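Ligand-bound model needed. zinc ion.
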Amino acid sequence: MTPTYSLSDLGWSAFFLSQLDLDELVTTTPARVSSVHRDRISVLTEAGPTDLVTETGVSTGDIAVGDWVLSHPTEHRVVRQLDRKSTLQRGSEHHVRERQLIAANLDTLFITTSCNADFNVARLERYLALAHDADVTPVILITKADQVDDPSTYVDEAQKLGRSLEVIAMNAKQTESAELLTPWSGKGQTVALVGSSGVGKTTLTNALTGGKAATQGIREDDARGRHTTTGRSLHALPSGGWLIDTPGMRGLGVADVSYGIDATFPEISELAGQCKFRDCKHEGEPGCAVMAAIERGEIDPDRLRRYQKLKREDYYASETVAEAHIRQRKFGKMVKSAMKKKAR
Ligand SMILES: Nc1nc2c(ncn2[C@@H]2O[C@H](COP(=O)(O)OP(=O)(O)OP(=O)(O)O)[C@@H](O)[C@H]2O)c(=O)[nH]1
Ligand SMILES: [Zn+2]
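Prediction:
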């Protein structure tokens, strides 16, 4: 039997309700997107799961798993998509402004790493920038705590990355691991797991879903081979929450997440406003408040290096094709004139 859910079970809140006008309140049905197909979307409503086609002219590519839409009272179609509380997207590796929607309306992003060679603060900062930019609360999970003598050294390292950041060490293979995550996976809460290959995402997914990851919350006929465009879907958790799986989140480029990078390095970005030049790169410019703080020993120089690296990567990945073109032409001209000067 297909389980039924109330709107609040599905994650509905005042944030979404306040977007409806009186007419919509009476005539439309809120629906949460559980998977996205090329020509339609699968949704969960209070009346159960169903499929909807999108508004005319709107591609399903603009809709992400986790989105809320209003569905028409009699026809199986979307009337309107609601504003998101959060949007998780990834930058493409190409040097064009191109971002791929991963999930909408997540409350928490579990950034997963393990007590071994995978543990890398630069990678964690990269995921943190993504989470902050998406407006999702990050929680760092450090798996394989059972394989080291003292997991607290890993916890302490991760804890340095944020004053109020939650960091949890665990053995993902123990069934209790799901219990450690209940503060974030209770009724109506939506979570996703990201992290490198082999850190234990599948193990944790199975712990959270009770091993039923593949089938919960999706229409049954999906199991008969109807393909979703992304492979992503919304899974109901026995704890009352929702898990959106995130295949394709492994390679992790940053693009257009400048805000998220600043939020990940508050000790640097908060000072940057006091630099003499508004576009100071903190690379030795006069009147640089960040360099001054480094000299006073107040900022970790390694953090500044990683901040600058992410900012550079974000800048190049965020520029449009036209901007890249101008930059390359400028560079070409500069090389030419330098060569002319040399020849003289
Ligand atoms: N001892 C121990 N082993 C773990 C733990 N977490 C995961 N493993 C093991 O590590 C291996 C990889 O775990 P997976 O859950 O498949 O990792 P994944 O992140 O899903 O990997 P991909 O599917 O490649 O992205 C498996 O053999 C798990 O049993 C843990 O906390 N402790
Ligand atoms: Zn500066």
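Residues 143-144, 146-147, 171-173, 195, 197-203 surround guanosine-5'-triphosphate (ligand 1) (CB under 6 Å).
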